[in-house]
UniProtKB/TrEMBL annotation:
Record-linked CDD domains: DPS (cd01043)
Molecular-function GO terms, alphabetical: ferric iron binding; oxidoreductase activity, acting on metal ions
Pfam family, one: Ferritin
Protein name: DNA starvation/stationary phase protection protein
Cross-referenced PANTHER family: DNA PROTECTION DURING STARVATION PROTEIN, GENERAL STRESS PROTEIN 20U
InterPro entries cross-referenced by the UniProt entry: DPS_DNA-bd (IPR002177), DPS_DNA-bd_CS (IPR023188), Ferritin-like (IPR012347), Ferritin-like_SF (IPR009078), Ferritin_DPS_dom (IPR008331)
Family listed: Belongs to the Dps family.
Domain spans labelled Ferritin/DPS: 19-157
Amino acid sequence: MDLEINIGISETHRKKIADELSKVLADSYMLYLKTHNFHWNVTGEHFHSLHEQFEEQYTELADAIDEIAERIRALGHKAPGSFKEFHQLTSIEEDTEKPKAMEMVRRLAVANEQVLRTARKALDPAKEADDEATIDLLTQRLHVHSKTAWMLRSHLE
């Protein structure tokens, strides 16, 4: 038995929000994979500090991915969860080679900034629908990715 969703946000708005959140989820997942990959494969004089920093970042992303997916579900839509779906939705390039440590840092800074741009775009339909829960979630993501991008860029100065 299906129960109609009546949370004060129209189906049209919920669909628009879920579609944009799906892009944020895909970008976040790809960033998670990139960060975890670099955590495993970083080498060089900054190994220890970058290894630990990348671990903090991918651990935070793992929790965020779950929150984003659960928000999509709360809006009554299916959260993408396959590599095929993520590949179709993401705007973040996958890394298959093993760059040097500072190139890893640069790529992660760029990828965090991409998640920021994707999350900003997702704010529009959430604001239009007065969806405070999604706005709050996206605002938290903006804060985290802004700080992470800044911290990564600081290694390169």
